[in-house]
User: Fold this.
Amino acid sequence: MAFVLLVATAPARADVIVFNDLADTLSVSGSARLVFNCPAGTQTCTASLSAPAGTTFNGIDASLEGVNIADPGGLTLSDTLHADPPILPNGSVSLSFSSDLNETGPLCATIFHGCQITEDGTVQPVGSVFWSNGSSDVIAFQSDVDVPEPSSWLLLATAFALLRTAKCRIRPGR
Assistant:
């Protein structure tokens, strides 16, 4: 009797490409197949991702065609990320990440497709690039989340203390 063993395998993941927006300078990490340009003093980073050896481009998640990323409050646009497929099957996928587009940012409700993701300070996957051998590269970003400075906390605490004192002095019937 002959036994046939069938093994189901999940598609192999090639690399995780992360656009890092953790300081005043952007960077990209995650693959030796990545060539990128993140000029100092700008908030835009472009990258070219080549196919793994012996493979060709097979597709991208629709989400990578343009992702609008909201500030932590979810109201204003903070960053954008998008991918352009290669013109030739053996070409590279072009990736672009722009951060802090405007200090106040347009409201998510007023831009086409709104904001799909709210930044939270962690590495957040956005989508995948698929290759002919069944592998995929995950495209992600990580943004710093603005936390009020200690002086802001002190000012806020002082304001609450003054309001509490004023409330106690204004109580009727005293």
Remarks:
- The first helix runs from residue 150 to 169.
- The CA atoms of residues 49 and 62 lie 17 Å apart.
- The chain has one helix and eleven strands.
- Residues 13-147 form one domain.
